[in-house]
User: Fold this.
Amino acid sequence: MTDKVLNGAEMAVLNSRLEGAARKMANTLLRTGRSGVLNRAKDFSCCIVTADCELLASAESLPIHVLSGPDMMARVMKEFHPDLKRGDAFLHNSPYHGCSHAADLTLLAPVVDDEGVHRFTVLAKAHQADIGNSEPTTYMGNARDVYHEGALIFPAVQVQRDYKDIGDIIRLCEMRIRVPAQWRGDYLAMVGAARIGEKELLALGREVGWDKLQAFTRQWFDYSEALMVEAVKAMSSGTVTASSTHDPFPGMPPEGVTVKSVVTIDSDASRITVDLTDNIDCLPCGMNLSEATARTGAMIGVFNSIDHRVPKNAGSFRRIEVKLRRGCIVGIPVHPYSCSAGTTNIADRVANGVQAAIAGLGQGVGMAEVGAVIAPSSGVISGIDARNGKAFVNQIFLAFSAGAAAPKNDAWWSTAHVGNAGLCCIDGVELDELYQPLLVKKRAFLTDSEGAGRHSGAPSTYVEFGPLKGEIDVGYVSDGHQNPAKGVCGGQNGGAANQFLMSRDGGKVELAGCALVHVSEGETIIAISTGGGGYGDPTTRAPEAVAEDVREGYITPDRARIIYKVSVDAAGNLDVAATRRLRSN
Amino acid sequence: MRFATDTGGTFTDLVVEDDDGRVTMYKASTVPSDPVAGVLAALTLAAKDRRLSLADLLARGDTFIHGTTHAINAIITGRTAKTALIVTEGHRDILTFREGGRIEPFNHTVPYPKPYVPRALTFEVPERVVYNGEVLTPLDESAVLEVIAYIKAAGVEAVAVCLLWSTINPAHEKRIGELLATHLPGVPVTLSHAINPTLREFRRASSAAIDASLKPLMSRYLGGLTQRLKEAGFAGEVMVLTSGGGMMAAQDVAEAPVRVINSGPSMAPIAGRYYTDLEDKGQSAIVADTGGTTYDISLVRDEHIPMTRELWIGQPTRGHLVGYPSVDVKSIGAGGGSIARVDAGGLLHVGPMSAGAVPGPVCYGKGGTEPTVTDATVVLGYLDPDFFLGGAMKLDRDAAYRAVAEKVAMPLGLGVEEAAWNIINLATENMVQAIADITVAQGIDPAGAVLIGGGGAAGLNSTFIARRLGCETLLIPETGAALSAAGAMMSDVTGEYAVSLFTTTADFDYARMNAALEELRAKCAALANRAAKKVLATRVSIVAEARYENQVWDIDLPLTIARFNDEKDLAAFRAIFDDAHEQIFTIRDPSSHVEIVGLRATVSCKVRPHEAFRLEQVGKVDAKLGKRSVYFTGIGWVDTAIYRLEALPEGKQHQGPAIIESPFTSIVVDPQARFRRSAAGSIIIHP
Assistant:
């Protein structure tokens, strides 16, 4: 411990270096990963936690992966392996020990200084194409429990010693994870990322001194907390309750699951409390949240609602309290309840509820609901490739557009769901058709499906696809059919999800929201994803913006007139006088 | 006589090479509304220097090489042609879906980007080709004719066509091209498979759309430039710099203007490679070009200049992806104009806000009130207020001092000099991080590379950058202040050709691979023949875009063999790939197959007759100009020797502290560093 206090300039430099290390890890993982979910969808995160297991730097990681979770995982690693050595690495994907869900396999590497003192832990977390589930999907919404789910579970299991793999673990994975060569490639990418982060931190520690780095982390947390205090002081105090309902899926009650979030803003004390305890117990399905995603879901809702410049780390987190209950579906899950889809469906309902609740405090804060996942157009497809006889399994990312409107802006469209915040990439049609025996017949935005508002939510996407040759299985968990993304402050709901199977003779059959569908040659699936909610009364939207939406074919002149009270012809020409008349009534 | 110009945001740089090989360098202010005026002003300076009229100077020129930001500026300001896009039925929204992705996940104040071509001008036509080139749905020509009629009525000025899998089977795109030529004569067209044969349809569509939209404007601009140079007395050939680091005849640019989008910044590594090789042949280099508002970084690795397909106009994911291969140049908003401020939590920030050229730093005395990096250098004595731009502009040191004191030193609780030093230090850190990003992506260890400092402001903190990166050598070339223009003078006439093909070491398609290689070489030879009368030497290099199976991001692997004859050749290729992958990403995976997704060929025709490239010494000045007080952290104010760059004798090793000045630049060497002038005229600093 040192008394030396770093000045604001030294702080800025050290922060930049730590963020740089996390970014270097992420760049490495992105460029070397094998499965599409890594290298195309960027469904991964890299971060640094302190020796005390507090989140310090996370570059621009997937929100649902990092806000809470890395801290708990590092703690568990220390608890199970108190004698950490340089060159160790641990696999962790246990939702009962701090991981988000089983598919998010994480590699933790302790950063141990030359004296043998554990200084930081670097984490590379990557959503796997497969984790050995009983069905070829990583979101097994219908899993009765972890046994039915079938995922390999690693509660901080050592996988490297002296920088060398422990072969037993690798072989075990290769026997239980589909397409093992692809898995091994992704594993190598994670090792590469973690080791690059470790190398950077060791160099930084030697250069500036470990004590100074420790002083920095303390001050950096204080600085972040101070900015958080400012942000919360700018809000008005109050308690708001919002609920967000997930469609009924197998293993759920017939009315679905309603998640209740009670948000209390105490502006004077600069504290935000999210109480999730008044919710149902864990269910015998794969939809339960892990503790990490329950906490993180609530925190995402908070950070979506405030000044984005507040750093997201253990310092600003001091001002957020998330109340959870053991055995609750949005709380601390009890083994063997399954959390297979714990990062998306119900977690989204938590985040959406919180940001919609905060919006209820008054114009200018919060956010509308982001649409739900996972339509078949982002599903996991698998089978035997009829072009070469090889097995394949991959999550594809053909389309999503669930972005919600914010107080001062239209939505960022290409958002997969609230937990991912738009970081996910969208596949090219050609890449998907090359790697899988697919034919994508149509991919477009759906007219009149946006969440209308003063600021509008994103429109739904429409994708029609099927096997070019042979047959494929498509697994998905498509929420948001009965409960589309809600608008706030007078804004309207976004478009609802739906899916159909088109038979060879042109027949169209509606499909369940959660299913593994077998699609034969000549058949296609039509996938409609959710749109996002709108913010504010649509009749206050700028008429020129409405006219442009008509001109571009996103909305029809009828919708412009009825919902927005704007008079515009099919070519997008605005009738100012008629609009004034419509809006004055 | 040859002229090379680079039009930047603030200055237009000119390098002149006389027939006897003498090189001289000039700078004039850029005229944003009329870039040609800035070029003519710089040429006028060169004429004066030779006691010639502009017409006489130009009459002696045989080549005029031009770097221009005209294309990129037109895109940024929305002055491109009204462009339509024709796509495969069902895929109208290619340019709106893009490839997803976002920066700043919690920042909900940035709007979702609009497609480069409005949806209202994007048209679907019934047709479909699949992954192996087979036609699933034939092209409906009557539908195409309907679209053309609509486009005509809408007053469209340019058309881009991008169909799925056109790189494997371009028949439908070609047929649409024919129909457009017949029914819409005079309207420029770009076909995606011809402009950018890459597998990713969004990038192809984006390249095609951007290219088409630039055609009318770039034809006009370059036509006008050629005409005005001709009127002023120039009868030689006008060449334009490409994003790929070469040059092409101005009249050819009209056919593929997307090739010149990053014209200018792409030249810095050409000059960087030249100067590095003079000191230490084959050494990797980081080439950093410091401007007033941007800091451009490019690389030289094993004599090659790495390329990228990820050139964005604007910010990544928020701007437009060009998709066309370009020299990998990373630009960040950092430079002399970057503003320093302390936030409510007491943290110092430098940039990304910039005072720009107007009002500029406080010390310019043009109304700037926020302290900038330049102001900090004035406070520290790095810049001589009376010798800025050779004395052409007086700097207000007191105003700079007051601004740093009030806005940075007081809130941080530091002395003014220490505050100024911290501004430089944080600006340095921002630049170092940007260098780290590009070097990790290209697999270069900065500690093993030479740092090349280009741009007039490079000397102010490059010693510190080099030290932070662990570089043993910082090299500031004699022409560093006009590095891109110097690179332009050294550059070759180039042609770039690509083919998209997919094969894997598991089942290697020798016949297709060898046919593709032959096709590429034939195209290269054709270009060399066309330019034959002036070509001194021709070099063809071919890279394979390769990756491990199921990776998506390929690496450029230079091919060392002319054709693949047998498994031995394939094994050799594979071994090189494993090495390259390990070098870039620290891991190799011998158990995975390697996929090749495309080939790119570059033909370079050397046209510059001279080997040496030395600035001519103009007039006589003293090498040592006395001393002035300069502040260094940890030491305080130090009496520091001031040297004149052009007059500094070669060879002698000096110990810092020192400031080396010229009318174009000021180089700071702190007390720990040593420096010398090399035989090639560069300043070599060992931090």
